[in-house]
Amino acid sequence: MNRVLIAEDLYLLRDGLVHLLQAHGFTVVGAVESGPELLKGLMELRPDVSIVDVRLPPTFTDEGLQAALAARKSVPGLPILVLSQHVEQLYARELLADGSGGIGYLLKDRVFNAEQFIDAVRRVAAGGTAMDPEVIAKLLASNARHEPLAALTPREREVLEAMAEGRSNAAISQRLYLSESAVAKHTANIFAKLGLAPSDDDNRRVLAVLAYLNSRS
Amino acid sequence: MPGKGVPKCSDRTAPLAQTEGMLRRFGQITVLLALLVVEVPAIVLSVVMLILAVAMGMVFLFPPQARMVRRLAELNRRLMRAWTGIPIEAPYLPKPPPPVPQADGLYRSDRTLYKSPRIPAWNDRWKWLISDPATWRDDLWLLLEPLVKGALLPLFALLPQQGLRLYALWSNLMLGATAASRLAGQVTHLRRTRNLATDSQAAEMRRIERDLHDGTQARLVAIGMTLGAVEQLVDDDPAAAKALLSKAREASSETLTELRRVIRGIHPPVLAERGLADAVRALAMDSPMRVTVEVDLPHRPEPPVEAAAYFAVSELLSNAARHGDARSAVVDISSNGPDLRITVTDDGMGGADPSKGSGLAGIERRLAAFDGVLALNSPPGGPTTVTMVLSKALPDHWAGDLTRLPRHKSIIVGLLWATAWCPTFPQGFVPAIFKIFGIDEKTWFLALHLPEVWQWPVIIGMISLGLTMHVMAIRIPATHNRERWMAEATPTKPWCS
Predict the structure, then answer these.
(1) By the CB < 8 Å criterion, does A89 face chain B?
(2) What is the pLDDT of residues A113-168, one digit of tens each?
(3) Residue A62 and residue B281: Cβ atoms within 8 Å?
(4) Are residues B169 and B307 in the same domain?
(5) Does domain A136-215 have CATH number 3.40.47.10?
């Protein structure tokens, strides 16, 4: 579970990512710098997880994102963590649209915090999700007027946000200084209020929440 | 004329209408002739005023004289338009803009500075009147009026309709717009929109400069200072150094957030990556309102057009959410031939006033560069609809039927292509080569069957005929496209006059 493919056109950042990942026990099977190379690498190497920049040569538009979407279309659930200088709901929704896990979408700044970044990479590799807090905030904001979300208590909202980012119960309890049982109770409440079927599996639970947010507005 | 025998039912009113028309025309001619009562004194007055203005240096008499003649000319244009249906456009150059004070509040006219705008404005008006050829054409028209009317008198009496028409054509010749005056109008319009465009661009640049200077640059300085402090502390007080380092990291993260905001204001990333349709969809998702987006464009417009359209929609949506208290909005972007059409409708409380809000004025300034117009319909109580049209903003070939030739022309082009080869090659170049190399073979080459003297002229004639046919086959569609394009590019069609 540690073969990584990196697609990033800036040499410094690519090199930094390679070193960072190697230092945390990953094997970098490829470091490419353009869209076509990335798609080829994804299809041929089938890495355990890929870290992909949205904007890549040759067009410097959304090459990376398109390659990621194309690869996941032919290999559903191929774990990919998309990095970008800016996060857009539009792209997040496209990445989440197929409803399978193993997807991440983070701002490039998140690389600054190596620990959290590596945690996100591991989560995506394991079939989970890692959504940038900024994306989640935007998703929640555009859903804010809908009844079920408005009925959540502030605490439940915090838990929902952390859950939507793709964190496990244990991670949420650590972040919000709650006991794990309290987090479990909050999640049960959230699921009841949103009318979602409860699930014990962390990944499936996150996908249900994201699908819920995605289906609205 | 009254018909012979019993007129048919439907004809019964015809003679009456004819007599009525005749009477009306005679009435109109009477008015025209009666106008001489004003025109002749005006001629005398004009001559006196012009002589005083030129010979005695009483230049202040010139503008009132020109204005008086213009008023008479305008009356003539209006009457002719109403009576004969011949539209006579005013040929005058656009009025000079009011003088703008300098930074020190003084008004400049050539090399002199004035405290009040009165004298510079008067100078501008004077120059405007005297440099306009239409002023002198008007004077000439007025001078010739008694002569022309007198000469047309017999025609007026015998054939009033034709007489009026001829007189209207004369007026059009003397008072109508010329190609030069229309072009001058267009140049003024272009100059104005160019100024607006450069102004708004300069304002944008200043805003970006301020954002980078006050935000990003200041933060980077702070980070550098923090790192300097860390350098000093790292040996003596590693704990404090570590705390400072984490602060620096936080600051760099904030700088990035700030920079992202600035970049979004310059050129939104989604717009660069995906184009107008998805960029507006992304806008819609981030909006607190429920926004429906309809985009119907066959291709991506040019980047500057996309950017102008994007910022206009962005501004309108944020206006609707902020001031209009709207809950939902619809954005519709479509192409209508080469025009880009954008409609933004919201269910807010309406009552938007472009003169109050600076937002709408800003949009208009931005759109002006593309000859874009903005129409606002915002009754109190809503809904508010803003329609923007950027005419000719899309490439010509988008306008579907622009290239389609009329039937007869395409048949001619087809025939030309089908037959042009015959005179060019078998009857032209090939016998020429046969003759040059002295090949004694006639086959079906017309020229070679003729007497020797005629052979070269016929060959050359065939080649020229064939080449002319080729050129025509290419030129007919090309000129058609250009005509169509020019006809659509400007409604006034100055090249037709």
Answers:
(1) yes
(2) 889 999 999 999 999 899 999 999 888 887 776 767 778 888 988 898 888 888 88
(3) no
(4) no
(5) no
Render pLDDT for B318-334 as a digit per residue (tens, 0 to 9): 888 888 788 889 999 99
**Rounded-to-integer distance, Cα B60 and Cα B271, Å:** 57
B261–chain A Cβ distance below 8 A for any pair: no
Q: What's the average model confidence in pLDDT over B231-243?
A: 92
Question: Which chain A residues touch B263 with a CB distance below 8 Å?
Answer: 85-86
Q: Which residue has the tokens 């007489």?
A: B163
Q: Is B273 on the interface with A (CB under 8 A)?
A: yes
| Whether residue B215 has pLDDT greater than 80 | yes
Looking at chain A, which residues constitute the CATH 1.10.10.10 domain(s)? 136-215
Asked if B442 reaches chain A (Cβ–Cβ under 8 Å), the answer is no
Residue B345 has pLDDT above 60, yes or no: yes
Which residue, A135, A134, A37, A118, is CA-closest to A81?
A118
Q: For chain A, where are the E strands, in sequence order?
A: 3-7, 27-32, 49-53, 80-84, 103-107, 129-131
Query: Among partner residues A61, A93, A144, which is closest to B273 by beta-carbon distance?
Result: A61
* B5 within a domain of the structure (yes/no): no
In B251-396, beta strands by DSSP E:
290-296, 328-336, 339-346, 372-377, 384-390
Rounded to an integer, what distance in angstroms lies between the CA atom of residue B333 and that of residue B305? 12
Question: What does the pLDDT look like over A172-199, one tens digit per residue?
Answer: 899 899 898 999 899 888 888 888 877 7
Q: How far is A115 from chain B (nearest CA, A)?
A: 14
Say if strands A80-84 and A49-53 run parallel, antiparallel, or are unpaired: parallel
CATH architecture of A3-131: 3-Layer(aba) Sandwich (3.40)
Could you tell me the pTM of the whole model?
0.68
Question: Do B185 and B243 lie in a common domain?
Answer: no
- Could you give the count of Cα atoms lying within 13 Å of A197 in the half-sphere of its Cβ? 3
Mutation choice for A interface testing from B285, B287, B293, B327 by most A CBs within 10 A: B285
Interface check for A97 against chain B (CB to CB < 8 A): the answer is no
What pLDDT shows up at residue B313?
A: 94
Cis previous bond, B383, omega within 30: yes
